[in-house]
Amino acid sequence: MTARKPKQHTTESTPASASATPADFGDYWTDAAQRTVLFLDTLLNRGNSYIENLEKGTPSLLKFNSEMVLDGRDLPEPCNYALLHLLPPDSMPVNPKLRPVVVVDPRAGHGPGIGGFKFDSEVGVAMRAGHAVYFIAFRPQPEEGQTLFTVMHAEGRFMEEVIARHPACKARPVVIGNCQAGWAMMALNAERPDLFGPLMIVGAPLSYWAGSSTLNPMRYSGAALGGSWLASMTADLGADRSDVAHLVQNFETLNPANTLWNRYYKLWSNIDTEAERFLEFEKWWGGFFRMTGAEIEAIVENLFVGNRLARGTVMDGDKAIDLRAITAPVVVFASHGDNITPVPQALDWIIDTWGDERAIAAAGRTIIYVLHESVGHLGIFVGGDIARKEHDQLVTSLDVIESLPPGLYEMKLEAKAGMESLRWEQLEPGDYTVHYEHRTMKDILALNPEGREEEALFSTIAKVSELNATLYKSLVRPWIKMMATRPMADAMTKMHPLRMQRQMFSDAFPFASLIHEEANKARANRVTVSDEHPLRKMEKKLDAQISESLNKYRDDRDASAVKLARTLYGPKMLGALFKPDAPDSEVAHARALKEIEAARAAVLPHLTEGGFAEAVCRIVLAGMVSIGSFERRSFRLARLLAKLPADTLGNAGAQTNWLTLLKSQARITAVAPVEALNALEQLLPTTVGRERALAVSAAVMMIEPTLANPRSEIIEFLMGTLGVDPDRVIGMARQLTESFEEPPAVVKPSTKAVAKPAAKKVAKKVVAAKKPAPVKPAAKAPAKRSNRKSPAA
Fold this sequence. Notes:
This protein is of the alpha/beta class. Helix content is 49%, strand content 10%. An 11-stranded mixed beta sheet has the order 2-3-5-4-6-7-12-13-14-15-17, with helices on both faces.
């Protein structure tokens, strides 16, 4: 029973006009009838594909060949996970000097493979860049006794194996965690930071109480059910197996218009072009997997209801998982169009874990986030356009991501088309230029128009959930476990509505042969009409009305759920009995202030230690804060400058580890920015040294018009403060970059150039400020969207 690919034999009728003839209307009804039979044929093929996939054991849907490296079933703590080495096609040779990339897919109801679902994917992008790529997959059924931490320990063993297979590469692997795999990799990274290079988490929820009542009401659903006890009971009824098809059903319930109408109308309306894409997606969407009861219970209690990960209270045995222990850069990719992992859920953990952006820099950590305006939850890690743009730029920017000074940044991508030719464009090949803008906790807060006040409600819900879970486990669970058997659970699993709709409408359907026969006739004698046909227009209008009605039902339902949660758990009812705890952000901020003050006290006595290299790093860091961002090309230009003869760089050339020095100086300037700059006179006792340091810094920062006329606000100010000759600094900066000069800039065909960030006032900060230098203003919050994206968007 395999899916039949439609053959195209299309005879399109003359486009209809206002004076359509009876024959034209006849063509429409013929087209509609043919579309209907082809639609039913496609649904039969979906069912056949589902059954065929079951018979094969529901393998991963990777588009790439693979070889098994480690099987989790063979580990001391067995689990259903496995490490695969993905074999690149001959057109994508591996560069052995590059670090390996490990892609981890979510186990949220579906099978693995979405990260390598097509060639334009996370896997494909990494392969094209020359990286060896590994994939952590999993089987449909868990092993007996498997827990969330069993899986985490297995993934740690997989990472050890990847590192051992690349002894010539000293850099640790890059890890990409999609959705739930994102928080799983964050937890592993916190326990085993020695295993990780940069970690990219894509559409991953880590702050589970965050969000908006109008845009992201999913978080209120657990309130009406009284917390986590229902997930525990469902797993107990399954004889210690949780059918994660229930999670998929929850995702579909989020958007009834898409689930009940839009996706099927889209298929029916565009049956000649949409069938193949529909079947490909449904093959993954309909691959339902299972978890143990211990796994789903730990996920719901610790994360989705308890929100303990960012707080640092998830326990692995007697050890707390503290996200502040992660040392490698963390890159967060989220989208305003994602209604399953809204932007606040993807980013607010930064506030709850660190409390203050200065604490991030003072601890030597780097966190970068990238925001998309509209793509849906699945599109963020499987969309072809996203792979060719954001994922490609992330992978090709790994050298810069690891070189960034510690701190909090937003990565911005700008298309080169329409811009004047950039200086040093050969250092940034491709269609996009990238810069990293300094961000603060206020910038993240501004992304949620509703703020975080309502999270107190979820603190109360979590406490009620703990009580209900305790009562269930003590009074009800023993009775259910006595009655539940695995055969009974398997039978219940097969009867799940999402499985039944696929299994029943397959070639086992009584009229399947007739539908296939009529579909073949329709393909052989296909008649289509123009979208301008009056009846086609009427059809589109009816589609919009049905979709709008279902969206209204959704909005009314969600509003009722929000109202119920606010009433039941608010301060006048259960909130009075189960008072919410202090917000995690306040706890983290108080801790951060103490840590910053301690770090400041530790560095102040040592500010004048060092010399030329330390001074250059401080000037560059001050320049970054001054303009609010740093260019990707600047870091690559800095590497070229570092290779110049030592006397050119004040006897601080190739023998200086500039990367390590820049990061250490960033930790100093984070807590004592004014004092660090005031110490430049001691670090640079001679005029020649000061001029050379300013010239090197100006060249590195690439502040326009620095390279044409090496002056910027910070450089101008420091030239006056340090008493140097501006003309000599200008001349020295030009000499440093002469060997890297490009031909004169040529304007590329387009509309207009993208504006550079405006420089900020720095003189007052250096001379009189008593607080750290401000950064760029907060990003604007996204406008409210009336129609939320579907999970499959």
